[in-house]
Amino acid sequence: MNNAIYPGSFDPITNGHLDIIRRASKLYDNLFIAVSNDSSIKSKLFTVQDRIDLVHSATKDIDNVKIIDFDCLIVDLCKKYQSNIIIRGLRALSDYDFEFKMALMNRSLNDEIVTLFMMPHERYTHISSSLIKEVASHGGDISKYVPTFVNKALGEAFEK
Ligand code: ADP
Which residue has a Cα nearest atom 9 of ligand 1? Predict the structure, then answer.
């Protein structure tokens, strides 16, 4: 089986993530979306279960997507799910520095691992979960950047 892993926080999933998921799912037999459950990072808006549920709703129509959570090295996750491929999205030059170091570190931990960078449609290259949350928290319209149920969940989160 030809598997790939797409790791991230997905706090929450956006149309940018979904764009990458659709492109990557066409290349592999199984695409594992790995939602980070790092207990040392407390600054998430949504719980890991909520983030998983939103990813699940957003990817229902894609047959070969599987959703997992993780709190370990991604190279260990790769071993567990029999994948040598890590998918990452590349938006602007500002992503490059961090992603470059991460890809080389993962390769030094396991020389078999390949990090594959994919570019989303240009309509999503300027968005991140953080920016979406910031705009949503002030009542701005983010409907073209997230699925409807994510928009609703953000509305509820910021109403509290
Ligand atoms: P992080 O890994 O910093 O927690 P995310 O969980 O938001 O960030 O992102 C996971 C992956 O998705 C990263 O590779 C990130 O570059 C990518 N990504 C996030 N937003 C977009 C977007 N709008 N277009 C393409 N890729 C994206």
Answer: 8
43 DSSP 8-state letter: -
Whether the full predicted model's pTM is greater than 0.85, yes or no, is: yes
- Residue among 116, 51, 60, 38 nearest 83 (CA): 116
Q: Which of 26, 39, 40, 42 is catalytic?
A: 42
Is 123 catalytic? The answer is no
- Please give the chain's pLDDT, 160 residues, in tens: 799 999 999 999 999 999 999 999 999 999 999 999 987 766 899 999 999 999 999 999 999 999 999 999 999 999 999 999 999 999 988 899 999 999 999 999 999 999 999 999 999 999 999 999 999 999 999 999 999 999 999 999 998 6
In sequence order, the 6+-apart residues with CB closer than 8 A to the CB of 102 are: 88, 115
Q: Enumerate domains of the chain plus CATH numbers.
A: 3-125 (3.40.50.620)
Choose the catalytic residue: 9, 25, 83, 129.
129
What is the CB < 6 Å shell around ligand 1?
Answer: 8-10, 14, 16-17, 20, 88-89, 91, 95, 120, 124, 127-129
The number of helices, as runs of H, and strands, as runs of E, in the chain is 6, 5
